[in-house]
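User: I'm preparing a small set of examples for a lab meeting where we compare how different chains pack in three dimensions. I only have the primary sequence for this one, and I'd like the structure in token form so I can line it up with the others. Please keep the answer compact; I'll paste it straight into my notes.
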Amino acid sequence: MDKLLALRAFVAVAQSGGFSRAARSLGVATSSLTRQMDALEASLGTALLTRSTRQVTLTDAGRSYLEQVTRVLDELAHADDSVADLDQEPVGPLRVSMPTTFGRLCLGPHIAAFLQRYPKVSLHLQLTDTNVDLHADRIDIIVRIGTPDLHPNLVVKRLSDHARYVVASHDYLERSGTPGRPQDLVDHECLQFDYGNGPPRWAFEKDGMVEQVDVSGRFAADNADMVREALLGGLGVALLAHWLVQDDVTAGRVRRLFEDYAVNPTDKEVCVYAAYLPNRRHSRKVQAFLAFLAARVGHVSVTPTGLR
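Assistant: Understood. Below is the structure token output for the 308-residue chain.
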């Protein structure tokens, strides 16, 4: 048994919850993966997985082993990076996780330029609006929009400020009236991005004073594109990133409200930031990607064909 291959296979099965999906991700036959797991469990003298016809789950021993194995594989990847980084040129696989819509609009048009500039780097991009575990998911960099102090054990790099607009379609405003001040939003349908952290509250800042408004509405989604579609459909008032709706404002599809206020979904400072494990601090490929991205998101402006 190749122990290293078996450990990687175990992590893949544990994270995917099944042999077939793990086999596809690793590019091997399911039967080969099953034999590796059988051999690994036999060598340890304990069951790591509980197998059924529907799913594969971890035993208590499996959960403990997964945590330790993930850490070992992460350190091995760091060792590989350290050797690779003896070269002056960034090299090796780079796994990056970022929000779905942000990645599609703000990085998508520039992927080719990055890979052409760094031909020895392979980019594995994960687009998700949910939290990820850098250790468990083997992620090198997470890019997020929010409050950087949520990651005290990571190295955090601020990439850019992040402006948000409160907007509504003209159809909606004709039907429901135009709110004159932030507190008027309590009487309006507010389209919400679902952060999964309690009742929605929008914060408005003007002249150093912060005003918080508890909003509500009949539509919420964990994807900004879906919130924008609801906005354009005239379903209510939305709070969205400027790079997502600036074109809609310019084209007259929606109207921006409360232009003399700074707006956030919370009363904390919001920015675009990247975070990574401390042992990736000196990785050339990590630093190359961060510099590349920072040069592009600092002045993001969405156009119908992508980014200017």
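A couple of notes for your slides: Residues 299-308 have pLDDT under 50 and may be disordered. The longest helix spans residues 60-84.

User: Perfect, thanks.
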